Amino acid sequence: MGEAAERRVLDAVPDGLLIGGQWRPATGRREFGVEDPATRTQLRTVADASAEDSRAALDAAVEAQPAWAATAPRERAEILRRAFEAMTKRADDLALLMTLEHGKPVAESKAEVAYGAEFFRWFSEETARIAGSFSTAPAGNLRLLTLKQPVGPCLLITPWNFPLAMGTRKIGPAIAAGCTMVMKPAKQTPLSMLMLAQILREAGLPDGVLNVVTAEDPSVVSEPLLADDRLRKLSFTGSTGVGKKLIEMSAGQVLRTSMELGGNAPFLVFADADLDRAVEGAMIAKMRNMGQACTSANRFLVHSNVAGEFTERLVEKMAALVPGRGTEEGVTLGPLIDQAAIDKVDGLVSDAVSRGAKLLLGGKAGDGPGYFYEPTVLTDIPDGVRLTCEEIFGPVAAIRTFDDDETAIAEANATEYGLVAYAFTADFDRALRVAERLESGMVGLNVGLVSNPAAPFGGVKQSGLGREGGAVGIEEYVETKYVALPT
Ligand code: NAD
């Protein structure tokens, strides 16, 4: 792709924090560096906000809220539509920028830009359809009117694994509903969000509606804002541990929260499954984003009649992946995000192997200087090893076998998480029976990718609260007000 193109997209990222429509430096001009995880070199620096900057961002959001709530839905819809078109037009630059800061192969970054942009198109279309209701009380003595009103200023916090789409999935419905925002992207991948904010400004988003605060220490944003009674909502995507802490901090203001948290997805392959489909689904569910997705298949549960063939074919496909810098032609496997990720994945693999798991492929960090980890396949996983309980967040497939449906379902549900589950079977009755009994917010039946802007994304149990996307996605950003009138 060339150094000149890289320099050009990096230079195009606006400098500073976006507060009240102005790009301005952080207090004391503090900055922190953003690294390319494939080379460990610094790409550029961004502003490092203080608590004072965070409060200024909330001030701007609070000031902009009344006028923004009063805009015509069509006006908000058209801003989203223009931003969708601009993202689509600039998809190559956005994808290159994302690959530089995140590491995923450019083809995957392009897929994320397209997916991320679709949230703007979807919520642009939903904007004009936010509607309350009018009815008569059963006793006939009252008219019941319900209004849908914007929640108010929101704090949006996103993770590094999908730097753009996790943002548009929140910003899209917030704009549609008429909420103002303070957005805090992850410190590892702030550049895509800064670029997106610039696109939204060019699409006509009024000053103060979206404020972006980058910070190396996230508590400079969460501590002052979650204690401030002008903030009306927190929407968080990230780990369950941090999510729990933020829920506790939100309790003081009884803040509305939406939580998209971690997962531990089971991937069930029944004896009657179409194995071509199952292996193809496994590659997507396991290896997309180098295994760093909340929806990543974490535990493969395969019927013992087909486990040998499934495993052999999966090993062959995983071994054929081409690691490297995501900007390079032909690369299909990028680096993990940082050294902590390598250490975590390696610790989980070592724990499983030391307790008797069989290593069929990989099992160690790849060649540097970047944070590479070899595609890894483990079988004969004993009970209770850490990688069946914790999110692996890396390119490691752990395969266990089962002999009957009841055992498979019980094992699939034996986790405190409940985001997504996958099941592969050619039997329609079994597919529905299993889908009904899996304790997860989403189920992929004979498919390894469930995410879609028109569908409600979210989890049960400790995977979260609320849904993003689909017709219900907007509900997270509106309050229902009831007005009573006499008949
Ligand atoms: P993380 O929880 O470490 O961080 C997520 C975000 O929270 C980052 O912006 C981080 O800076 C911020 N943060 C951390 N501590 C904070 C604090 N005290 N106050 C305010 N903000 C704070 O998660 P991560 O490592 O960035 O992302 C990976 C995790 O996200 C995984 O657990 C993954 O499953 C989850 N995830 C969930 C979904 C979903 O939709 N359910 C989607 C993507 C990722």
Automatic annotation (TrEMBL):
This is NAD-dependent succinate-semialdehyde dehydrogenase. Keywords: Oxidoreductase. The active site is at 260. The keyword Oxidoreductase applies. InterPro entries: Ald_DH/histidinol_DH (IPR016161), Ald_DH_C (IPR016163), Ald_DH_CS_GLU (IPR029510), Ald_DH_N (IPR016162), Aldehyde_DH_dom (IPR015590), Aldehyde_DH_Superfamily (IPR050740). The keyword DNA repair does not apply. Residues 23-483 form the Aldehyde dehydrogenase domain. PROSITE patterns: ALDEHYDE_DEHYDR_GLU. It holds the Pfam family Aldedh. Belongs to the aldehyde dehydrogenase family.
